[in-house]
Amino acid sequence: MFIGKSNEISRRAFMRRTGQLSVAGAASSYAMGLAGIGEAAAFNASDGYKALVCVFLYGGNDYGNTLIPYDSVNYGRYNAIRGGGAAGGGIALPRDSLASTVLMQPDEQVLTDDIRYALAPTMPRLKARFDQGAMAPLLNVGPLVVPLTKAQYESDNNSSFPRPAKLFSHNDQQSTWQSSQPEGSVSGWGGRMGDLALSSNTNSMFTAINASGNAVFLSGETAMPYQVSPEGAVLIRGTTNRIYQSAAARDAMNSLLTTHSGHVLEGDYARTTARSIEFGGFVSDALDRSVLATDFGSGGLASQLEVVARLIGARNELRTTRQVFMVSIGGFDHHDGLIGSHEALLGQLDSAMDAFYRAMLELGVADQVTAFTASDFGRTLASNGDGTDHGWGSHHFVLGGAVNGGKFYGTAPKVSVDSDDQVGRGRLLPTASVDEYSATLAKWFGVSASEMPSVSPNIGRFANPDLGFMQTSN
Amino acid sequence: MGNIQADECVREQGAQITAASDAESGGVDAKTAGALVALAAATAACGGGDSSTTGGTTAPPTGGGTGAPVARPSTDAQAARFVLRASIATSSGTVAAVRRDGYEPWLNAQMNAPNAQSAEQFFAAVGYDKVDANRFYNLSGPADNMIWSQLMSGGNSVRKRIALALSEFFVVSVNNLNIPWRSPAIGKYWDILNEHAFGNYRDLLEDITLNPAMGVFLNTRGNFKADPNTGRVADENFGREVLQLFSIGLFELNQDGSVRTAGDGTPLETYSNEDVTGIAKAFTGYDFDFTGIGFTPATQNPAQMIPDADYVRNPMTADSTKWVRPRGQSFHSAEEKSFLGITIPPGTGAQETLRITLDTIFNHPNVGPFFGKQMIQRLVTSNPSPAYVNRVAAAFNNNGSGVRGDLRAVFKAILLDDEAISDAGLSNQTFGKLREPILRFAQWGRTFGARSAIGAWLVGDVSSVSNRLGQAPLRSPSVFNFFRPGYVPANSQAAANDMLAPEFQIVNESSVAGYVNFMERTTNGSGFWVRDVKAGYSAELAIAHNSTALLDHLDLVLTGNQLSQNSRNVIQAALDDEVVTESSDEATKLKRIHIGVLLILVSNDYLVQK
Fold first, then answer.
1. Is the pLDDT of residue B53 over 90?
2. Any residues with CB less than 8 A from the CB of A27 and at least 6 apart, and which?
3. Counting C-beta atoms within 10 Å of the first and last residue's C-beta, which end of chain A has fewer, N or C?
4. Given this model, what pLDDT does residue A21 score?
5. Each residue of A339-371: b (16+ CB within 10 Å) or e?
6. Are A410 and A397 in contact (CB under 8 A)?
7. Closest chain A C-alpha to B194 CA, distance in angstroms
8. Between vectors from CA A297 to CA A296 and to CA A303, what angle results, nearest 5°?
9. CB contact under 8 A, A385 and B223
10. Smallest Cβ distance to A243: which of B497, B512, B598?
11. Backbone phi, then psi, for A354, in 5-degree steps?
């Protein structure tokens, strides 16, 4: 039986999400300024434009060859576990290839076993940003319901020591990272931040923008992600031009595209088409006027970040004050072929993220935009021959002018396959949770402590709602 | 209705069953036709009130001479609706054939028929398997052209429709096959799916496990046993995904597809990480079988020797003497292998290990509901009732003759089930599924007689969202297919109604727009991807002068008469905007046809298949 739930969604929320565009300079009776909403002002957007950009690495990024132990003791451990270098059939990176990407933390910061790290050899740009204080690595972060020791994890006592469901499964961990729940989840923490930010945006439909494939990360309870391709908004030619030289056909198409018989799936599809038509021209015009000098080069991630950068450049025209974006790059499931392929992907990541940062500098909003990485999971430290298998905790990067960069956050794991901070073959048991990661970003974004559980549902179980990698004085 | 049924019955008893003459039916050979006559004679019942007037009942799985009446569609719409699920496209001739023969006899005939041309034969016919200056051995484009040739032409669209559904469950993507002859590799994989589509799941599972394309895609190929000196252990990729995606899934299921839970309500997991580590050992020691494989110097660089394409067609082997660099030892794990509650003793060889492993997987009670539900989702509806899943799982567990894993029985159970056939689904606003873009483009081609002018089917990769179709067969972005079976679109009516809608995972503001643009240029042949593949529109040209007849015909063959009256009115008005008579020139007639076809293919009541 069909239930028309749209009338159950509050009219205000419905209008916010699908309401008419407010074009800069034109009066619209549906313009949703802050004055028009009267929502509780717990969310703080008074300090100007801010944006978060999630860079999702699909497949499970191998932490072992991303942040590599560089001091001789720990490098020795790493090298042994990874079976030596590729020439000898192992998957360790040669130590001398790491010399120019060593991350020198401040003297007063001493990590586990006095470890020093180097970035992969193909990441010199992010190393430079680290040195400048604009990039911070977060060590051993992963989804947790509660903090867990190894003994608690191995006890299989799910009620006393709950752990995320379906660990080590790609699709479920992608969903868990993005939304705290396995596949089938309908709202993610990026979208839930968007929910809180909706009323800050005159054109609330552009609060959450996805430049890659559908993902739960940007879906909120109310906020609906708007998808844009790297080439910009895709416009339906037949809605404005004659079809096969027939104006009647064009008119018919316009009618057919947005009408349906009442079937649930037809309605959902028609609504997406209506959004595409309604917003596409507007976004297209805005993008046409948003030109950047920064050269992003070519490649999937680069072109996604470029369109995000141009949308940020068009924020005044789009009339948005708080936005959450998502981009992604795939190919990280290195069960085999780790050496070569992995560094190449990291090189793309390095180049694209750095170009994005340069574009933010060009726009004068480097302090107002923060990009951060995420992935399904880390991988094993031990090798399976020429690759690694699914893991859990991993290392990630935060990049932006508001980042407290130049040092490490989280707890460095031991370089081991039998220590207490790993659960077999060097799969890391996370010591920082995704909830703490997301809460730290959310706090900077403007989410208040009282609203934090709506973004990061497990935050109450962890000691550190703020991991400290953002400058709090903003 | 009773008189009409009796008349049909009498005609049918006396008639020779012949294959529909159009390209769609796939052709039935004389032997099969004769068998059909005998079958029909044995099972048809003339007169008497039976439920075949509603086209409802499910025939017995073996379809033998039980004396039960053959269920038949009562209307053209019912027939078309059935065919459009079971195959890629339909025609007025096929509609008539199904009405005449009945659902199950028609379906049996289609399932009996082999493909006219395999992927391997296509590559040979076009010359895509030759070593020459084209360097086809490095290209994936031939695979694109092959699959569109398969989907749009060459008959037997039932077998191919099912193989396409299988390709979205047992996923391999040519995107990640970085080996020489990647196109013939995925072609062989496609041929295996077609070969076993109506065979047995256990045979299919074994063939895909040993298939080189799968071996490269999920790393079985070259996966060596553990080396305690380096700490290296077996690659877990295939071991994990064969359980998670190709057989039992993550949670224990009841036969109706619902998840089994422990006393406290937590779902019961089917396997642990230890099971994955254990089963990974079973898939060690395999590599390409180079027996009989010759080498040809590359045209541009004679020092580079290119193997014959057959090396990606031979099943992989654990006999290392047959590898391209023969070895004197086995790389299959000699350790004890424990998983899913069984233990394979140490020293068990590769072949025996494989047999035990695949049998263990095959006999797990999850396979019926896990596989069955997803096949229902691919073919009929995204949200089958638990009872429907139960019936399909039961067919998997036992085809009626004591055989487990009979895929023919499974697909018949899916397509002939009352939940699929009953007209009740048409008034249920939660029933059915969104047609995925691949199906829409394939249906266009097959319906309107698409043919390649030069024989090479130069369609290419249509994956691009912004300037192509947004989805391409055999090019899934990962082993997880284009969309997940449990996907729920956010902020949607589907979510509010607790519905799954897998195909919506690739629906967004860019892809819906890209699709309309793609179909506009496909329909009139102006797109670059249809520079070689052209639709004939021959049946439509004959009636283009009569807009109502044209609309009726297109509505029937494209949607099974599922266009709403409102949609029909709008489209009719567009068709009638210009005058077309019998003596109008072809361009004028084609213009009207293109308008009708395009408007239907972008209508929401076409896009959702009910």
1. no
2. none
3. N
4. 61
5. beebbebbbbbbbbbbbbbbbbeebebbbbbbb
6. no
7. 28
8. 65
9. yes
10. B598
11. -70, -40
Residues composing chain A: 474
CA distances from A28 to A20, A24, A32, A43, B355 (A): 8, 10, 9, 25, 70
pLDDT tens for B35-51 read: 444 444 434 434 333 33
Q: Please give the residue that has the higher pLDDT: either B255 or A3.
A: B255
Most B CBs within 10 Å: which of A7, A218, A265, as the mutation test of the B interface?
Answer: A265
Mutation site for B-interface testing, chosen from A170, A268, A272 by largest number of B Cβ within 10 Å = A268
- Residue B29's pLDDT is 42
What crossing angle do the helices spanning B157-167 and B182-196 adopt, rounded to 10°?
110
Give the H/E segment covering residue A344: helix A338-363
Q: How close does chain B come to A249, measured CA to CA in Å? A: 5
The DSSP secondary structure of A184-224, one letter per residue, reads T----HHHHHHHHHGGG-TTGGGSEEESSS--GGG--SS--
CA dist., res. B45 & res. B43, Å (int): 6
Q: What b/e sequence results for B496-509 when a residue is b if at least 16 CB atoms lie within 10 Å of its CB, and e otherwise?
A: bbebbbbbbbbbbb
Whether B95 and B20 have beta carbons less than 8 Å apart is answered as no
Alpha-carbon dihedral of residues B7, B13, B16, B17, nearest 10 degrees?
A: 80
Of B2-6, B373-377, B444-448, B554-558, the range with the lowest mean pLDDT is B2-6
Low-confidence ranges of chain A (pLDDT < 70): 1-41, 472-474
For residue A418, the 8-state DSSP code is S
CA distance A272 to chain B (A): 6
pLDDT band at B210 (very low <50, low <70, confident <90, very high): very high
Please write the tens of the pLDDT for every residue from B480-505.
Answer: 999 999 999 988 999 999 999 999 99
- B32: confidence class by pLDDT, cuts 50, 70, 90: very low
* pLDDT at residue B411 in the model: 98
Strands A394-399 and A369-375 turn out to be antiparallel
Q: Which residues are B444's β-sheet partners?
A: none
Q: A132: distance to nearest CA of chain B, Å? A: 37
The model's pLDDT over A166-188, given as tens digits with 9 standing for 90+, comes to 899 999 999 999 998 888 788 99
Chain mean pLDDT for chain B: 90
Question: What totals of helices (H) and strands (E) does chain B contain, helices first?
Answer: 26, 8
Contact B167, B479 (CB under 8 A): no
How many Å from the N-terminal Cα to the C-terminal Cα in chain B?
A: 25
pTM of the model: 0.89
Predicted confidence at residue A159, as pLDDT, reads 86
Q: What is the ipTM of this complex?
A: 0.89
CA-nearest residue to B215 within chain A is: A336
- Residues B440-461 pLDDT 10s: 999 999 999 999 999 999 999 9
Convert B50-69 to b/e letters by CB count within 10 Å (16 or more is b): bebebbbbbbebbbeeeebb
- B69 vs B92 pLDDT, higher one: B92
For the beta carbon of residue B200, count every other beta carbon within 10 angstroms: 18
Question: Residues near A269 by Cβ (< 8 Å), separated by ≥ 6?
Answer: A260, B434, B504, B507, B512, B604, B607, B608
Task: Write out the two tokens for B419.
Answer: 């939940």
What secondary structure does DSSP assign to A229-275, as a single string?
BTTBPPP-GGGTS-BTTBHHHHHHHHHHHT---S-HHHHHHHHHHHH
> Given an 8 Å threshold on Cβ–Cβ distance, is B478 in contact with A17?
no
End-to-end Cα spacing for chain A: 52
Other C-beta atoms within 10 Å of B2: how many?
Answer: 11
Rounded distance, CA B11 to CA B15, Å?
Answer: 6
- Which among A159, A214, A227 has CB closest to B264? A159
Chain A interface mutation, best of B512, B555, B564, B572, highest count of A Cβ atoms under 10 Å: B512
